[in-house]
Structure formats: structure tokens, C-alpha cells
Amino acid sequence: MEKKDFKSGFVALVGRPNVGKSTLMNRLIGQKIAITSSKPQTTRNRIQTVYTDERGQVIFLDTPGIHKSKNKLGKFMVETAESTFSDADVILWLVEPTNYIGAGEQYIIEKLKACGTPVILVINKIDTVKKEEILEFIATYSKQMDFAEVIPVSALRGENTSHLMDVLFSYLEEGPMYFDEDTVTDQPERQIAAEMIREKALRNLSDEVPHGIAVTIEKMHERPGGHLIDIEATIICERDSHKGIIIGKQGAMLKKIGQDARKEIEMMVGCKVNLQLWVKVKKDWRDSDVMLKNYGYVNHDEDE
């Protein structure tokens, strides 16, 4: 039997690359699911996470940053983000604290105006500006569109994020519990492990490599007794020169990526992990429909 006054709904996080969508989502649900880095286009697929308390259940849809695509992977990412607009009950549009509204923001504004879903403007990274400047930024954005609410936050420091959750619940209607209350994400552990490896590669590698990598989990199984999980994973890159950078001098870079990823995967699975990493070159995989599908970049609206 459903609890009385239990609210539920879907909330999309949208915005340009690198505005802090994944950091905010991790903060709101209270644990790390989406990977984060200082490099744009970190999130590629739509990631669904779940927050449940006595008030109800919020299903967050974290989307890739909306940007001008240069290849089929980029096109997939933008289509994934934009298709989420119609699936959501509320949209959180994350922006930087600035008075400058560029072409990328203008494009998103037009899409948001057309979708008819309540839009809450979230001005993120307020820890990087003076308090008195925030009112100016609110005024600048409010001239562009009639927002349901405007809420300044610092996702990194957790500033004003509990208020944001209160506001979100005020916009949701009574509804069912879509997931068990202990569910935090619909992503399988294999997928999260692959993303954690990709995050560590993004953080450790130089700028020219990361956009051209994907990670696949070849094997993930628990040894008898349940105290150790063996994982074999492959980092896919586009060029032989990139392979050399990923492996590093005497394998040092690959070892560092593996060590960093293993620690986080162990925290997720709650036991020791034996992680083995390999590197393969697949030229121009970001423009290959077959390879995009193989690496999990599939538009779920397709009837295939």
C-alpha cells in the first residue's frame, strides 16, 4: 500500500558541459554515482539516480552537457540530453555565476521555453563569487525566461542544496515509489565501475586524449567466499600515440589510473578488488555507429 502524501517524480539536470551537473546530483543523493572531472563532456549517457526519504522519491536524470557536436558520439550525447526534457516533471537548469549569456545558453533557453516543463534555474559555483554579485546574475537570467524558481547553490560545498531538495518536493505530485527505498541508481555495477575507470583516466591524462577514450568491462566476477572481485577492463582509444600516453613510461600512467580506480570501486562494492587494465586502439570509434553501440552509447528511443 502506498504511503499517503508520498510524492514522486523525475527531475532532469541539464546545462552546458562542465557546469557541475554530476557534482550536484552526487551531492543531492548523498553518494557518488556520476563521475566528475574538470574536463567537459565527462557524462556521456543519461544516468538515473534515486533519492528517497519520508517525503517521497526523486528520480534524477543526469544528462550529458549540451554542446555543438563534432562527431556521432557528440550528436548522441546532445540527443540524449534533449530527449530528457520531455521525460521530466521538473527541469533543473544549471548555469555558471555570470552576467554573460552566450550562444550555448541561448540555445538551451529556446529548448526549455518550448518544452512546457517547470524549469528551476540553479546558479551553481556560488562559492567562487562575492555574495552581492549573485543578485545581479539572478536578474540577468530572469530577463531571459520566466523560471519557476531561481536557486543559487554550491554543489561542491553543499551550500543551499537541502533548500533545493525542499523546493523540488514542492513541485512534485503524489505518486508511487518507483524504486525500493535502498536503490540509489539504475546503473549496473559493471557500468559504474567502467565509468570510475574512465573518470580516473580523465583526471590523470593530458587534454588531447580523454575525449577519445571509452572503457569496457570484459570480466567482473566474485571469488568464492565473497571477499575479492576480479575485474578485467579495457581502455579504448583512437590513436597509437594515445595508447602510449595512457600506458605511460614503463606502464606508470596505466598503473596510476588502475590504483585510483580500484580504491573507488572497492568503496562501491564493499570488498577488495583485483583490477587488471588493458589498452586497445580503435581508430575513430566516436564516428562508428557499430562501435558506439558496442560501448553502450545507444539511444533508448530507437526500436532496435
Structural features, described:
There is one protein chain. The chain has 304 residues and is α/β, with parallel strands linked by helices. It is 35% helix and 22% strand. It folds into 2 domains: 168 residues, Rossmann fold (3-Layer(aba) Sandwich), CATH 3.40.50; 106 residues, K homology (KH) domain (GMP Synthetase, Chain A, domain 3, 2-Layer Sandwich), CATH 3.30.300. Strands 1, 2, 3, 4, 5, 6 and 7 form a 7-stranded mixed beta sheet that branches. Strands 8-9-10 form a 3-stranded mixed beta sheet. A hairpin with a 5-residue loop joins β8 and β9.
CATH superfamily of the largest domain: P-loop containing nucleotide triphosphate hydrolases
Mean pLDDT: 81
The overall strand count is: 10
* Residue fraction in strands: 15-25%
Tell me the count of domains: 2
Element-level helix/strand string = EHEEHEHEHEHEHEEHHEH
Contiguous runs where pLDDT drops below 50 for at least 5 residues: 35-44, 300-304
List keywords for this structure.
single chain; 304 residues; three-stranded mixed beta sheet; 10 strands; 9 helices; 35% helix; GMP Synthetase, Chain A, domain 3; alpha/beta; globular; seven-stranded mixed beta sheet; Rossmann fold
Ordered list of secondary-structure elements with their pairings:
Blueprint: E1 7-14, H1 21-29, E2 47-53, E3 56-62, H2 72-84, E4 90-95, H3 103-115, E5 119-123, H4 131-142, E6 149-152, H5 161-171, E7 173-174, H6 189-204, E8 214-222, E9 228-237, H7 240-247, H8 252-269, E10 272-281, H9 289-294
Parallel strand pairs: 1-3, 1-4, 4-5, 5-6, 9-10
Antiparallel strand pairs: 1-7, 2-3, 8-9
Helix pairs in contact: 6-8
